Every structure is written in C-alpha cells, then in structure tokens.
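Students often ask what a holo structure prediction actually looks like on paper. The answer is less mysterious than it sounds. You provide the chain, you provide the ligand, and the output is a string of discrete structure tokens encoding the 3D arrangement of the protein together with heme C.
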Amino acid sequence: MHEPSVFWRRLATGAALLVALGACGKHAPAPSAQPSEVKPTIAEAFASAKIPILPRSPVVPARRTNVLPVPPREGPPDNPVLVALGKKIFFDERLSEPPGTSCSSCHDPARAFSGAHGSSLGVPLGSRAGHFARRSAPSVLYMRYVPKFHFFEDDEAPQAQPRGGYFWDGRSDSLVELVKQPLFNPEEMNAGTPQLLATKITQGPYAKAFKAALGPASDPTAVTHGVGVALEAYLKSDEMTPASSKYDAYVRGQATLTEQERHGLELFKDRRKGACSGCHRLQETSTNPGESMFTDFGYDAVAWPRNRDLPANQSADNFDLGLCERKDTVLPSSDKQWCSSFRTPSLRNVAVRESFGHNGVYKKLRDVVSFYAFRAVAPGRIYPEGQKFDDVPAKYQSNVNVYAPIYNQREGGTPPLSDADIDALVAFLGTLTDAPYLSKLAGNAPIAPSPSE
Ligand code: HEC
Ligand code: HEC
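The corresponding structure tokens follow.
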C-alpha cells in the first residue's frame, strides 16, 4: 500500500485535532491553570499540524493591474507555419483506415477537444465499426502544461510521488512520439504502416506546406516524425491554450461568480468538505492559467466504478491497472503500489465532456460529484451490492485512497456534501468552460453568463 501523501496525513492530523476540539468554528475554552492542559485554538491546532490555512474566497481584488494578456509559456514562441500544418494534420480524415477518422473525431473542437466519436459506451469509437479505444479521450487543450513523468520529492514525504506524463497512465513524455499511438493503433485511427501514412502526406493537399515547414522527408520514418513535430506545435500553441473561461476572467478581476458558483469554489477548496483542490490544484492569486490547471498531474487510486459497457470488461478478470502498466525502465512505475492509479485529470472544460474518468463510466458531471459525496458513506449507491471498489482487483484494493477528507468518512455517516453542495460544485465546474464551448454546457452545469456580460 502506498503511503498517504504528507498532505493527507497532515490533514488527517488536523481533522483529528478538530474532532478533539469538538467544535468547528468556535474558540477553545479559556486556558486552565495547568499549562499542559491548555487547549489550542483551531488555528493553533492547524498550525501545529503544519497545515497552511488558506484564505477563503474571495482573495482576488476587484480589479487587477498585472493581468497577463496571453498565457505565459516556456520555450520558443509559436512557429505559425508549423502550427498551421499541425492543425491541417489534426483535422485530416484521410489518414485513418478506412478514411473518415481524424484526431478531431475523438478530440472534437466543439467539445473542447475531447469526445466520444459517436460512441455511448464511455470510450470513443475508432475508425472501424465495433472497434473502441481502451479509455475515454481527454481534452487536448492546455497540453503545454503537462510536465514530463517524474517522481516528485517532498522533504517530509516517506516516498516520492509520481507526477506528469501524457495519457491516463503517464506512459508518454513526448507529443512527437505520442501521436504515433492513436495514428497506428488498430482500435483508433488504424493508419496502417508509416509507408502508407507517408504516401498520404507527401501526395496530399498540404504536401507543399509539409515540405516547406519540415524540409524534404527522406523516408516514411522521417515523415512520421515530421507529423509528430507539426502536431506537437499545434497542440502546444496559444490557440490550444485559450484561458477564456469565466474562472480565468474571475482571477483577472474581470468577472464575478454567482452566489452558487462562489459556494462551489469554497467547497472545492474547503479541507473539511470537498477538498478537491488537494489534487485538482488551483491558484486563485495567479492570472497564469498554468497555475490553475485543476490538477497537480499526480496519480491517485480513486476507485471509479467499473464500466460494464466496455467490450473488454465482458471478461470478469479484465482490469485496467493504469500507472503500474506503464513500461519505462528509467523511471519505472511498475511497482504494484501504483496499480489502479490514474493521472488526476485537469478539470478545465470538464463540463463539456461526454464521459468522465479513465473508463468513462459516468456520463453526467453531477454523477461524478455525487460519486465523491457517497463513495465512503454510502458505497451501496456507487457499487453493486457487496462489490465495493469493483474495478480494482482484490489484491490491489489496499491501494485505494481512503485518506483524502472526502473519502475519510464513516460508512453510514452524513455525506460530506449535501445535494445543494453538489449542485454548487457542478455550477463552479461550469465556470472552467472556455468561451467557445459554453453552448455545450446544457445538462452538465447551469449556463453561466459569459465573462464579458
Ligand atoms: C479513436 C479515438 C481517438 C483518436 C482518433 C485520437 N485520440 Fe488521442 N486520445 C484518445 C484516448 C482514448 C486517449 C487516452 C488514452 C490513454 O490515456 O491511454 C487519448 C489521449 C491523447 C493525448 C494525451 C492527453 C493527455 O492529457 O495526456 C493526446 C495528446 C492525444 N490523444 C492526441 C491525439 C492526436 C494528435 C490524434 C491524431 C493523430 C489523436 N489523439 C487521435 C482517443 C483518440
Ligand atoms: C485524492 C485526489 C483527488 C481528489 C481529492 C479529488 N479528485 Fe477528482 N479525480 C482524481 C483522479 C485521480 C481522477 C481520475 C480518476 C480515474 O479516472 O480513475 C479524478 C477525476 C475527476 C473528474 C473527472 C474528470 C474527467 O476529465 O473525466 C471530476 C469531474 C473530478 N475528479 C472532480 C472532483 C471533485 C469535484 C472533487 C472534490 C469533491 C475531486 N475531484 C476530488 C483525483 C482526485
């Protein structure tokens, strides 16, 4: 079993202290004569547990002067020629076999570049009928902020924690290399051989642009590499880093949250309530969207319920083990303590997704938030009778996170989030929707007025 992170251990200590104090929000009784019996105030209890007390919102001044007009980035500025070429490739339906499926089929620009390609199973359909991707397709906006896979060292943590890497299991560190996977995966684009791909690129409508941007390609391997370079440029471009959500406007001091959205944000951060921000990280005091990706790019075994619609799951012993299946020998994560952990997804544009979590079992955002509210107190509402954590093999169930405040609750107890709290969280998550996708919010979050209104 992996050790709970320092964050959760500190939190557990803090929570225990709070319980010991017996009263939230009230001051401890006056100190008695015996110094050893002096009860700390809540603030002192938190301080001794080394829990930084975060300011509750609002922390953002009404109007900022230091607003960043364009999200800052590392590395050289966009190369417009490469970005334009990458965009053409991204939308090119000729590349699949049979033709008709492009990157944009599963990363649909109308849905913030996530999507199901017409499938209702929770995972997208590939280029051939009856062939499905293994996992749900995340949004590919904001790719410039995904760090390379690494183990994050915290001085006080008993063990370094895995972070970063592309895909739900972090198995790729390079977009240039990554794109070969959807292209040649027979369940996704099924593009055949690099030879076939090279023929379509070098004899297709943008052959000249390809040559102008990347030089003459000597062989199919070089063409495939060039495709990767162009797609990487597009995926990391300013265009794919919009930061035009109401939340972004709010941290810039250019929009106000509704009462319900503000309550949702408070619950999101409140360590005795949702504590969502422990993993889905945000930095309200920064206008740099990179600081508010709503993920720390860490991994967690959340124990999403099993998606029984997935064809592979017809076999009872089929399990997606996530991080421990990643095959890397330099920074291995194959230890069984990482089984059933998945990368914490960014929640930007989450409300326009068609399915949620790595296995896409949930189709409505509200059901995801309810999952968090009921997993610990009423597992019978989440999993089939007697099958708690049904998508985690029995031998790995000790990996499941039971320390985070939202899970660290007694079965049968009061849910940490009320119905109104769940609605508020959903409303807040709606504010993470970039301007072009607001019309797709229906059913998942109340349609918020656009930031300019
Ligand atoms: C058939 C559907 C499908 C198609 C087509 C497809 N993808 Fe994906 N994409 C997925 C799925 C599913 C995942 C998640 C896979 C995983 O985590 O194991 C994914 C993940 C990604 C990621 C990682 C995102 C992250 O947050 O780590 C990138 C980048 C990506 N795809 C780019 C592309 C590009 C570029 C193309 C076109 C060459 C493409 N995809 C075509 C389904 C698809
Ligand atoms: C301990 C870390 C952790 C905490 C705390 C946490 N999450 Fe998550 N969240 C994850 C991970 C990991 C996943 C992916 C789970 C999977 O696919 O197996 C996830 C997935 C999600 C998704 C689906 C996103 C998508 O793109 O499919 C939503 C929505 C979400 N979380 C919202 C919340 C909310 C709201 C809270 C607070 C009530 C919260 N999370 C608390 C780690 C966490």
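The CA atoms of residues 200 and 385 lie 52 Å apart.
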